[in-house]
Amino acid sequence: MTDAVQQASTAPARTGAISWRSTPNRVVTIYLPLACFVFVLLFPFYWMTITALKPNQELYNYKDYNPFFVHSPTLTNVRKLLFETDYPQWLMTTMMIAVAATVLSIFAAVLAAYAIQRLRFRGAQWVGLAIYLAYLVPPSILFIPLATVVFKLGLYDSPFALILTYPTFLVPFCTWLLIGYFKSIPYELEECAMIDGATRLQILRKITLPLAVPGLISAGIFAFTLSWNEFIYALAFIQSSEKKTVPVAVLTQLVQGDDYQWGSLMAGALFGSIPVALFYSFFVDYYVSSLTGAVKE
Amino acid sequence: MTSVAESLTKTSVQPGPIARLLDWKPFLIVICLLPAVGLLMAFLTYPLGLGIWLAFTDTKIGRSGIFIGLENFTSLAHDPIFWLSVFNTIFYTALATVLKFSLGLWLALLLNEYMPFKALIRAIVLVPWIVPTVLSAMAFWWIYDPQFSIISYFFKEVVPVRENNFDFLGTNWPARFSLIAANVWRGIPFVAISLLAGLQTISPSLYEAAMLDGATTWHRFRYVTVPMLMPVLSVVLTFSVIFTFTDFQLVYAITRGGPNNATHLMATLAFQRGIPGGQLGEGAAIAVAMIPFLVAATLISYFGLARRKWQQGEDSD
Amino acid sequence: MASVDIIDAGKFFGALRIIKGVNIPISDGEFVILVGPSGCGKSTLLRMIAGLEEISEGEIRIGSRVVNEVPPKERDIAMVFQNYALYPHMTVADNMAFSLKLKQASKSEITAKVDRAAKILGLGPLLERYPRQLSGGQRQRVAMGRAIVRDPQVFLFDEPLSNLDAKLRVQMRTEIKELHQRLKTTTIYVTHDQIEAMTMADRIVVMHDGIVEQMGAPLDLYDRPANLFVAGFIGSPAMNMLKGTIRGSSFETENGNRLPLAAAPAASEGRRAIYGMRPENIHLAGDGIPAEVVVVEPTGAETQVVVKAGGDELICVLRERISAKPGETIRITPDLRLIHLFDAEDGRRLTA
């Protein structure tokens, strides 16, 4: 009798079939593998961080210092990164490009999603499909012709090269997301407003958009992250070292000759990741919902 | 709702010509689609066509080219490095995808179980995917260092099974596997979270009904989970295959295609020939050569995506 | 032997008690319905019988076997779910054959059993269709077919008709009852609809807040409800209930109306009680109490009249049609033999 009561307190809440496995089994089949996954997924970041904080003599000496820990952490590498390189400049540039590209993409995506989903017109789904397919055209195919286009437009080595080309992969995804969000807003609300005499643009501004705000935030956050993550265009279109984005700069500017200063390199990698990670930590729910929303469509 | 309507209709003087134009549906549709379609046309469709055209020219950086027909392609066909990159790309994509999906599915199944702090764990799991690829690639570069690899240290000192350091990136096959490992590491979160979303749409009563019908855990997985997951799986698979096939960042950051071109993917080779090498036409040709493979992958997944017979009809459940 | 015995069953989620002290003996072949409002624990109890929920306390036996630790697939039961739980990616035939396929039964056995079930339920032409292509009633039948193929000792139904429209519900009620008469399998059925319970059950178990309020044949519960809750739950429209005091051979309501009693229970003079009369047991009578008509709702077969007698509002269901309109007065009296008295404190039945 007491066994049953004990089992009841560890039984799962009404989330579905009860598991006829006992508790020790659960640890082995679920928690242990999960712990392994989490460890493997997070270890490289840990390694990155402690490398950035290790003084050189500790870094290259595994005999005397256990490499898994930092024994006398130092901020030299961090200081070098922040004050002796153009890192602050790279950071600003990347931020600016990411924000500008995001704003531009969201603007285009909202209008396109509204047109496709709400202003029902013949062929709307074909336009939608075409936009989805655009997402499947990878940058590594487009970068060479785009380089010539960028050059011809005189945008080579300018942040506008990136601000205008990033939307090619941001707009399709954001449109997709926003169509999903618009779908969830009952059309009756707009019909009601139309009967009451509102123009379409007023409906968009006062009814649809406010209700789609979570979707806009998700799309914006996602776009921001994807912009940060972009590499090949930034590598191909920007030449001058001070105008580079963080991912490109950290890879190309911090490696001088054959002697890799791993401490500095890892500091660069770490600080390149921090802005996005920080941003992510504030908006986790939006990330997950946008991923799951995209997939469910 | 009425107050909004009231405020909208109170100002119901006959709207000016611009406002009326904006309310005319066809016009509104056009200007709404214009930014998105315009951007995509200018920076995607046109370059795509241009890229295909470039592949048939001998354009170099700084100098326009002339039409040379299939010359680029024939010279590539005789180029062993090109074929090596094709092999590398296919091998890399195939193995990485298989690993990503098996491990990703496993992780998704784990995360689908009831557990405390599920939201936190889910958030942690996504981190590798959030961080810019190049930067985590650099971390792997350091992990794969010939002298100071932490993995080598582990297997030499902590669990003494080895004498020497691992040579991760110095020779062909280890380099390939090392890169695949890094790619899988990065890709698991996306696959896992997406599949998790799919798993959560499967009604628990289906599992209960199966349990009552006599299904074991394996049966439930095979006859309920997998078929119901297929649509989501095809979508995620399509994306994953395309983005793995055209991967650039990871390889460029860690090996630049070496050693001895053993890890050159078509994308990195295209970059190398086109930009530092200056042969834009040839680079474009290599990029264009990727297209047939991608189209094939999309079509195959489309047949998985296409709504199956059992999904048609009115909504159930 | 396919009897089911629920002995002192209880269910807890941490500190939250869902079910406590439930004792229900069910004999072989009986059609028992668990009925009650949402949250009373009836579905949880059913799921405990099925093995989908842990049994915190007590025992459940199927046949003479205690099944507390027995996994669902070994309990020899079949369940029809509220949302049918049909496998969307399998045809109707495959859905029904699934359990046999898992047992690795021979193809001929599978075909024989599936055809037999399909014939009983009229599913023949639908065998190759997918659930999504079926209507609600058809899906319900497939869910039942899947249960029949299992040929179990006990059928469990979890609110199977809630998702159907009213007309279909009436039709399916009859079909399920006929099925039971034909197959004679022990059936445990859960619903919140008391009409379903009254029309289909051999025995009804009324549950409320995790305990059994009353068990018995439908008419027993109708005629002699053991407490206020059962009295108000069974019967539609619900029983009229008036608070007041027993005075000699009549009942004085709080609003001053004097209502007749056939016989007062012993030693009850001055006792506070609740007077219950079913709407259908109130008749027009020249010498009855005057009541002002509020609303008249003719349904064709009967007339439902809401009246106000002094401060007491009552619903009457009259067989005859009346010409009185709202605002006019009619005179009514209850059938003396069918009056119910309940204790004002604990709601227990008072009349003998």
Word description of this protein:
Chain A is an all-alpha fold and 297 residues long. Chain A contains 16 helices and no strands. Chain A is globular, with a radius of gyration of 25 Å. Residues 1-17 of chain A have low confidence and may be disordered. With 317 residues, chain B is mainly α. In chain B, 72% of the residues lie in helices and 0% in strands. Chain B contains 14 helices and no strands. Chain B has helices at residues 2-10, 17-23, 25-54, 71-77, 80-112, 118-130, 133-143, 150-158, 172-200, 204-213, 217-245, 249-254, 266-274, 280-305. The model of chain C has no long low-confidence stretch (mean pLDDT 90). Chain C has 352 residues and is an alpha+beta fold. Chain C has helices at 42-50, 92-102, 107-121, 136-150, 166-183, 194-200, 218-223, 228-233; strands spanning 4-13, 16-26, 31-35, 57-62, 65-66, 77-80, 154-158, 186-191, 203-208, 211-216, 240-247, 250-253, 258-260, 272-277, 282-298, 303-309, 312-318, 329-334, 340-343. In chain C, the strands form four sheets. In chain C, strands 6-7-8-3-9-10 form a six-stranded mixed β-sheet, sandwiched between helices. In chain C, strands 13-12-11-14-19 form a five-stranded antiparallel β-sheet. In chain C, strands 2-1-4-5 form a four-stranded antiparallel β-sheet, covered by helices on one side. Chain C is built from eight helices and 19 strands. The radius of gyration of chain C is 24 Å and the shape is elongated. In chain C, 25% of the residues lie in helices and 35% in strands. The chains are: A mainly alpha (297), B mainly alpha (317), C alpha+beta (352).
Features:
heterotrimer, A: 297 residues, mainly alpha, B: mainly alpha, 72% helix, disordered C terminus
Estimate percent helicity of chain C. 10-25%
What structural class do the secondary elements of chain C suggest? alpha+beta
Strand order of the largest sheet of chain C: 6-7-8-3-9-10
Helix content of chain A: over 70%
Gap between N and C termini of chain C, in Å? 37 Å
Measured distance between first and last alpha carbons of chain A: 48 Å
Strand content of chain C: 25-35%
Order of SSEs of chain A: HHHHHHHHHHHHHHHH
Number of strands of chain A: 0
Number of DSSP-assigned strands of chain C: 19
How are helices and strands ordered from N to C of chain C? EEEHEEEHHHEHEHEEHHEEEEEEEEE
Low-confidence stretches of chain C: none
Poorly predicted ranges of chain A: 1-17
- What is the overall silhouette of chain C? elongated
Number of helices of chain A: 16
Helix-and-strand structural type of chain A: mainly alpha
Overall average residue pLDDT of chain A: 81
Largest sheet of chain A, in brief, is:
none
- Profile the largest sheet of chain C: 6 strands, mixed
